[in-house]
Write a structure and sequence with these properties.
This protein is α+β, with helices and mostly antiparallel strands and 199 residues long. It has a domain of 110 residues: Muramoyl-pentapeptide Carboxypeptidase, domain 2 (2-Layer Sandwich). The chain is 49% helix and 20% strand. Helix 1 runs antiparallel to helix 2, helix 3 packs across helix 5 and helix 4 packs across helix 5. The longest helix has 30 residues. The chain is elongated and about 75 Å long.
Length: 199
Amino acid sequence: MIEIADITSIRGGVYSKTYRLKQGALALARRKGDQTGSLTRLDEWFERLLMSMHLEPRRKPADEMEIFLYHLFRLLSESDSLDEAIFEDYGRRVGDGLVASSLKFTSLSSGLRELAGYLAAEGFAQVTASMKKGEEPRLVCTRCFENKEYGSLVCSFTQGMLTGAIRARDGGTLRLERMRPEIETPGCVFALKRRSFKS
Protein backbone atom coordinates (compact mmCIF):
# COMPACT_ATOMS: atom_id res chain seq x y z
CA MET A 1 0.00 0.00 0.00
CA ILE A 2 2.96 2.34 0.49
CA GLU A 3 6.10 3.04 -1.50
CA ILE A 4 9.30 5.02 -0.97
CA ALA A 5 8.91 8.53 -2.41
CA ASP A 6 12.33 9.97 -1.53
CA ILE A 7 15.62 9.02 0.15
CA THR A 8 17.96 11.70 1.47
CA SER A 9 21.27 11.24 3.20
CA ILE A 10 22.08 13.00 6.43
CA ARG A 11 25.49 13.54 7.98
CA GLY A 12 27.14 10.39 9.29
CA GLY A 13 25.81 8.06 6.57
CA VAL A 14 22.27 7.91 7.95
CA TYR A 15 19.45 7.90 5.43
CA SER A 16 16.02 9.44 5.74
CA LYS A 17 13.17 7.87 3.77
CA THR A 18 9.89 9.53 2.83
CA TYR A 19 6.95 7.27 2.06
CA ARG A 20 3.69 7.85 0.19
CA LEU A 21 0.56 5.86 -0.60
CA LYS A 22 0.78 3.90 -3.83
CA GLN A 23 -1.62 4.92 -6.53
CA GLY A 24 -4.96 3.14 -5.95
CA ALA A 25 -4.04 2.20 -2.37
CA LEU A 26 -6.64 4.50 -0.84
CA ALA A 27 -9.43 2.35 -2.31
CA LEU A 28 -7.71 -0.75 -0.88
CA ALA A 29 -7.43 0.90 2.55
CA ARG A 30 -11.16 1.76 2.45
CA ARG A 31 -11.98 -1.85 1.44
CA LYS A 32 -9.95 -3.21 4.38
CA GLY A 33 -11.84 -0.83 6.70
CA ASP A 34 -15.17 -1.96 5.23
CA GLN A 35 -14.18 -5.61 5.68
CA THR A 36 -13.24 -5.03 9.32
CA GLY A 37 -16.61 -3.36 9.95
CA SER A 38 -18.43 -6.22 8.19
CA LEU A 39 -16.59 -8.84 10.24
CA THR A 40 -17.47 -6.99 13.45
CA ARG A 41 -21.16 -6.98 12.47
CA LEU A 42 -20.94 -10.66 11.52
CA ASP A 43 -19.48 -11.50 14.93
CA GLU A 44 -22.47 -9.76 16.51
CA TRP A 45 -24.90 -11.77 14.32
CA PHE A 46 -23.00 -14.96 15.17
CA GLU A 47 -23.26 -14.29 18.92
CA ARG A 48 -27.02 -13.72 18.50
CA LEU A 49 -27.27 -16.99 16.58
CA LEU A 50 -25.46 -18.89 19.35
CA MET A 51 -27.65 -17.33 22.03
CA SER A 52 -30.90 -17.99 20.20
CA MET A 53 -29.97 -21.62 19.51
CA HIS A 54 -28.76 -22.29 23.08
CA LEU A 55 -31.74 -20.63 24.73
CA GLU A 56 -35.23 -21.12 23.34
CA PRO A 57 -35.06 -21.27 19.55
CA ARG A 58 -37.96 -19.57 17.75
CA ARG A 59 -37.12 -21.20 14.41
CA LYS A 60 -35.65 -24.49 13.26
CA PRO A 61 -31.82 -24.60 13.50
CA ALA A 62 -31.49 -24.85 9.70
CA ASP A 63 -33.64 -21.71 9.28
CA GLU A 64 -31.51 -19.84 11.83
CA MET A 65 -28.38 -20.94 9.96
CA GLU A 66 -29.80 -19.85 6.60
CA ILE A 67 -30.57 -16.41 8.05
CA PHE A 68 -26.99 -16.19 9.29
CA LEU A 69 -25.68 -17.29 5.87
CA TYR A 70 -27.80 -14.55 4.28
CA HIS A 71 -26.13 -11.95 6.51
CA LEU A 72 -22.72 -13.51 5.82
CA PHE A 73 -23.24 -13.10 2.05
CA ARG A 74 -24.80 -9.64 2.37
CA LEU A 75 -22.20 -8.08 4.65
CA LEU A 76 -19.19 -9.59 2.88
CA SER A 77 -20.42 -8.64 -0.58
CA GLU A 78 -20.99 -5.06 0.61
CA SER A 79 -17.31 -4.87 1.58
CA ASP A 80 -16.28 -6.72 -1.61
CA SER A 81 -14.70 -9.53 0.42
CA LEU A 82 -16.59 -12.75 -0.33
CA ASP A 83 -13.79 -14.98 0.90
CA GLU A 84 -13.96 -18.78 1.11
CA ALA A 85 -11.77 -18.79 4.25
CA ILE A 86 -14.21 -16.52 6.13
CA PHE A 87 -17.14 -18.82 5.30
CA GLU A 88 -15.13 -21.86 6.39
CA ASP A 89 -14.09 -20.14 9.62
CA TYR A 90 -17.68 -19.31 10.60
CA GLY A 91 -18.72 -22.86 9.69
CA ARG A 92 -15.97 -24.22 11.96
CA ARG A 93 -17.25 -22.04 14.80
CA VAL A 94 -20.79 -23.40 14.28
CA GLY A 95 -19.50 -26.98 14.24
CA ASP A 96 -17.46 -26.45 17.38
CA GLY A 97 -19.97 -24.32 19.29
CA LEU A 98 -23.30 -25.86 18.28
CA VAL A 99 -23.03 -29.20 16.51
CA ALA A 100 -20.31 -30.93 18.58
CA SER A 101 -22.22 -30.57 21.86
CA SER A 102 -25.06 -32.65 20.36
CA LEU A 103 -22.79 -35.62 19.54
CA LYS A 104 -21.42 -38.46 21.69
CA PHE A 105 -18.70 -39.53 19.21
CA THR A 106 -17.55 -42.67 21.05
CA SER A 107 -15.62 -43.93 18.01
CA LEU A 108 -14.83 -42.47 14.59
CA SER A 109 -17.22 -44.71 12.64
CA SER A 110 -20.15 -44.28 15.04
CA GLY A 111 -19.35 -40.59 15.43
CA LEU A 112 -19.43 -39.95 11.68
CA ARG A 113 -22.75 -41.79 11.36
CA GLU A 114 -24.11 -39.81 14.30
CA LEU A 115 -22.89 -36.54 12.73
CA ALA A 116 -24.53 -37.42 9.39
CA GLY A 117 -27.79 -38.27 11.18
CA TYR A 118 -27.76 -35.02 13.16
CA LEU A 119 -27.13 -32.85 10.08
CA ALA A 120 -29.97 -34.57 8.18
CA ALA A 121 -32.40 -34.37 11.13
CA GLU A 122 -31.73 -30.65 11.60
CA GLY A 123 -32.03 -29.94 7.85
CA PHE A 124 -28.42 -28.73 7.50
CA ALA A 125 -27.12 -31.19 4.89
CA GLN A 126 -27.32 -34.72 3.55
CA VAL A 127 -24.02 -36.35 4.47
CA THR A 128 -23.00 -39.95 3.94
CA ALA A 129 -19.95 -41.42 5.61
CA SER A 130 -17.98 -44.28 4.08
CA MET A 131 -15.25 -46.19 5.86
CA LYS A 132 -13.68 -48.83 3.63
CA LYS A 133 -10.90 -51.02 4.93
CA GLY A 134 -7.47 -49.71 3.95
CA GLU A 135 -8.86 -46.31 2.86
CA GLU A 136 -9.27 -42.99 4.63
CA PRO A 137 -12.80 -42.30 5.89
CA ARG A 138 -14.78 -40.14 3.46
CA LEU A 139 -17.74 -37.84 3.78
CA VAL A 140 -19.95 -37.00 0.81
CA CYS A 141 -22.04 -33.89 1.35
CA THR A 142 -25.06 -32.98 -0.78
CA ARG A 143 -27.76 -30.35 -0.54
CA CYS A 144 -26.19 -28.38 2.29
CA PHE A 145 -28.75 -25.73 3.25
CA GLU A 146 -30.69 -26.61 0.06
CA ASN A 147 -27.67 -25.51 -2.02
CA LYS A 148 -27.11 -27.38 -5.29
CA GLU A 149 -23.95 -25.59 -6.49
CA TYR A 150 -21.20 -27.88 -5.28
CA GLY A 151 -17.92 -26.20 -4.43
CA SER A 152 -19.61 -22.86 -3.62
CA LEU A 153 -19.14 -20.63 -0.57
CA VAL A 154 -22.01 -22.44 1.17
CA CYS A 155 -20.01 -25.66 0.73
CA SER A 156 -17.01 -23.95 2.37
CA PHE A 157 -19.26 -23.07 5.32
CA THR A 158 -20.43 -26.71 5.55
CA GLN A 159 -16.84 -27.98 5.28
CA GLY A 160 -15.95 -25.74 8.21
CA MET A 161 -18.96 -26.99 10.16
CA LEU A 162 -17.93 -30.63 9.62
CA THR A 163 -14.33 -29.82 10.56
CA GLY A 164 -15.36 -27.97 13.74
CA ALA A 165 -17.69 -30.74 14.91
CA ILE A 166 -15.22 -33.56 14.22
CA ARG A 167 -12.21 -31.79 15.74
CA ALA A 168 -14.14 -30.81 18.87
CA ARG A 169 -15.15 -34.44 19.46
CA ASP A 170 -11.91 -36.04 18.24
CA GLY A 171 -9.45 -33.76 20.04
CA GLY A 172 -8.27 -31.96 16.92
CA THR A 173 -6.27 -34.76 15.30
CA LEU A 174 -8.39 -35.01 12.14
CA ARG A 175 -8.60 -32.64 9.18
CA LEU A 176 -10.90 -32.63 6.17
CA GLU A 177 -9.40 -32.46 2.71
CA ARG A 178 -11.65 -31.72 -0.26
CA MET A 179 -11.30 -34.42 -2.90
CA ARG A 180 -12.07 -34.26 -6.57
CA PRO A 181 -15.42 -36.03 -6.82
CA GLU A 182 -15.89 -38.94 -9.17
CA ILE A 183 -18.20 -38.21 -12.11
CA GLU A 184 -21.03 -40.33 -10.70
CA THR A 185 -20.82 -38.68 -7.23
CA PRO A 186 -22.98 -35.57 -6.93
CA GLY A 187 -21.79 -33.35 -4.10
CA CYS A 188 -18.61 -32.48 -2.23
CA VAL A 189 -16.29 -35.30 -1.20
CA PHE A 190 -13.98 -34.94 1.81
CA ALA A 191 -11.32 -37.33 3.04
CA LEU A 192 -10.56 -37.40 6.76
CA LYS A 193 -6.85 -37.38 7.39
CA ARG A 194 -4.90 -37.59 10.61
CA ARG A 195 -2.62 -34.67 11.29
CA SER A 196 1.02 -35.59 11.10
CA PHE A 197 3.36 -33.83 13.49
CA LYS A 198 7.00 -33.53 12.50
CA SER A 199 9.43 -34.40 15.25
